[in-house]
Amino acid sequence: MIIKSSTIQLLRFPFSFFLLPVYLFGISQPLDINWIRAALLFFILHFLVYPSSNGYNSYMDRDQSPIGGLEHPPPPERELWTITLVMDLIAVGLSLLLSYPAAMAVAFYILASRAYSSRKIRLKKFAFFGFLVVISCQGGLIFWLSYHASHAKLSLNVPITGMLVSTLLLAGAYPLTQIYQHRQDAIDGVTTISMRMGIRGTFRLSGLLFMLAFLVLGLHFGLQLELDRFLLLLLFFLPVSVYFLWWGIQVWKNPAKADFRHLMKMNIISAICSTAAFGSLLIWK
């Protein structure tokens, strides 16, 4: 079977890189890591679950304007829906090799993702509830899953502060991903958190949530007497903070700067710096 190029494009495999930091943060926290399970989870999330979620969302939305990681999305075909279903089934099957709780978490993520995009359920129509679903799944749930699956003893005692940090970091970043597509979302009957807040309000909200995330991150490492690691993370995140402030100033002067190209620069800088930050914790360990 030859998969069409449009299907591969809409799965947006490179976009999984933007979700890598939460996984790295999760596996960096257990004292003893099972690297085989950690590697299997990496494959499940970044080569199956995330691309399938992207593809299903594209199939439902049929975007004609830029979407995350793809400036000119091609029209989706029925093949895309079939491929995402197969990928989801494989993901749940492989996650059974990790543990039953891990498989349940993966299945829950997939179902939540489908409910978010589905035309029949369409959680993304509801600004605040849709926002909470995304940040709790891509943030707290993925941290829990990464910590649990990579832990040598499959511990279910996952640090709440780590889950909260991951959720808040996603909460700060997610409204920014919606800031350039208010008109397209309105045409589609979708109300996003960014639309509710407005362009300037989106930057205010994201800035506040980022500050809360770093306060909880400091608490997380403070409770473990590892503030030196927290200070290292702050250095890695400095370029992200600088670009965020610079972009915010540009948007304040000219709202047209809240566009796809500036967002992608923000995403790339954030992904590189946060991947390096949480990856450094693994190297340190």
From TrEMBL:
Membrane topology designation: Multi-pass membrane protein
Keyword check for Phosphoprotein: no
Locations listed in the record: Membrane
Top-rank taxon, per record: Bacteria
First-listed, main subcellular location of the protein, grouped into a coarse class: membrane
TM region(s), chain numbering: 6-27, 34-53, 80-111, 123-144, 156-176, 205-223, 229-246, 266-284
Pfam family, one: UbiA
Protein name: UbiA family prenyltransferase
Lineage of origin: Bacteria, Pseudomonadati, Bacteroidota, Chitinophagia, Chitinophagales
